[in-house]
Amino acid sequence: EHIMAIRNKNINPMTSKITYYKKPVFIHQGHMQWLWDMDGRRYLDLFAGVATVAVGHCHPKVTAAVEKQLKKLWHTTNIYVNAPLHEYCEKLASHLPDPLKVIYLTNSGSEANDLAMLMARIHTGNYDIITFRGSYHGGSQQTMGLTSQSSYKYPIATSSGCTHTMCPDVFRGPWGGSHCRDSPVQTIRQCSCVQGQCMANEHYIGQLKETFAASVPSRVAGFFGEPIQGMGGAVQYPKNYFKEAYKLVREKGGVCIADEVQTGFGRTGTHFWGFQGYGVLPDIVTMAKGIGNGFPMAAVVTTPEIAASFAKAYHFNTFGGNSVACAVGSAVLNAIREDGLQQNCHHVGTYLMTELAKLRDKHEIIGDVRGKGLQIGVEMVKDKASREPLGPEAMMEIFEDVKDMGVLIGKGGLYGQTFRIQPPMCITTADVDFFLAVFDKAIH
Ligand code: PMP
């Protein structure tokens, strides 16, 4: 009661609004994929603090690296040469393909996207930015313009120059295209592929062309895309969509920005970055969340050419490149490699998707199972024929039951109709079996 009184009185009211459960969970402690509440109840964490705790809660090696750095040096700003900053930037750059080698360290995903937006405008001399419907790119004044989900926006604060093109959502969008997903499971929707060419892709690219014609007639500064939409509910795109979209954007004078805030650091399993799954090379990559395993840090990585355009005025960030953050970042990259977490995302994620597809075939209210690696969405519907989104009360009931049986999952999608599974990347197939039994029971 005392804690809830503080929450209601002293913490910004939106926090209470987004408290997930009717009976809130008081998290007290964590270890790897497990969390414990104040009463000592254990939960399997399949949401990782919104896809953030990449290598596991209080991962022993990351914790040890932080402890070591905390005793040595906390902060100098990056105007001084210091080892953690340089070690980290060299290590992070080694995870990115050429020519993406120039790093700007920031503190949050919003800040990273804000900076990427500015870079795109300065480099191209153009102003207009295109993103997808259903996207989420941040909550700062500028990034609110990029974000399309209206529940996260204040129109008065939204920056101008951002247009939202139709999201190639093959389940909820009008054009189907299940075969086009690089995914181990099929959707209930029949694909309208013709000789291996997905018509859905053509339709969505047509929409992008229309966006140019209608809203951005001449030149564009940038095109932002999450390789798999996160808050939008694990929405993937037809295989060739990004290749064609990038070409179109570049023809119009713009640069292409991959928002890897949720999909980066091996989460999609087959690749370290989500964009690699589509065979494209962005001009700017933004990253946050998993980069610090819960420590507040983020980054923008770009090419020397774009960095050169962005060097005319001083760009300074007090905490970006903080010594402790850099020590965390290095330890996270080590843990991903040493613990084989990208491979684990592929292995456990494929198993989870395959088993979830069986539950989808069994339950009328599971409409779609999609995603890649451990970036998975389960879209709930009233029935498979209408594909109408399951209502908030039924969603809440399942959600609360799953929690009461010891598993935490997330929610997303335009109508709040998609359960999100984005756990620490260290979960096992035994954890998946536990979750599936709980989920099956909750849906029953
Ligand atoms: N981009 C994406 C894809 C995100 O999911 C988020 C946060 N949910 C952001 C950007 C913004 O990150 P932050 O909350 O760290 O500002």
Descriptive overview:
The protein is α/β, with parallel strands linked by helices and 444 residues long. The chain folds into 2 domains: 2-47 and 340-443, Aspartate Aminotransferase, domain 1; 64-338, 3-Layer(aba) Sandwich (Aspartate Aminotransferase, domain 2). Helix content is 37%, strand content 15%. The chain has 14 helices and 15 strands. It has helices at residues 2-10, 13-17, 48-51, 60-72, 83-93, 109-124, 141-146, 199-214, 241-251, 304-309, 323-338, 341-362, 392-404, 429-443, and strands spanning 27-31, 34-37, 42-45, 102-106, 129-132, 162-165, 222-225, 255-259, 284-287, 298-302, 366-372, 375-380, 407-408, 410-412, 418-421. A 7-stranded mixed beta sheet has the order 4-10-9-8-7-5-6, with helices on both faces. A 4-stranded mixed beta sheet has the order 1-2-3-13. The protein starts with a helix and ends with a helix. The model has no long low-confidence stretch (mean pLDDT 92). The structure holds 4'-deoxy-4'-aminopyridoxal-5'-phosphate. It comes from Acanthochromis polyacanthus (spiny chromis). Its cofactor is pyridoxal 5'-phosphate. Homotetramer. Belongs to the class-III pyridoxal-phosphate-dependent aminotransferase family.
Which CATH class of the largest domain?
Alpha Beta
Provide the β-strand percentage band: 5-15%
Ligand kinds: 4'-deoxy-4'-aminopyridoxal-5'-phosphate
Helix percentage range: 25-40%
Mean of all residue-level pLDDT scores? 92
**CATH homologous group name of the largest domain:** Type I PLP-dependent aspartate aminotransferase-like (Major domain)
Q: Using the CA coordinates, give the radius of gyration.
A: 21 Å
Supply the number of helical segments. Answer: 14
What general outline do the C-alpha atoms trace? globular
The strands making up the biggest β-sheet line up spatially as 4-10-9-8-7-5-6
Helix and strand run: HHEEEHHHEHEHEHEHEEEHHHEEHEEEH
CATH architecture of the largest domain: 3-Layer(aba) Sandwich
Question: What's the story with the biggest beta sheet?
Answer: 7 strands, mixed
Task: Work out the count of structural domains.
Answer: 2
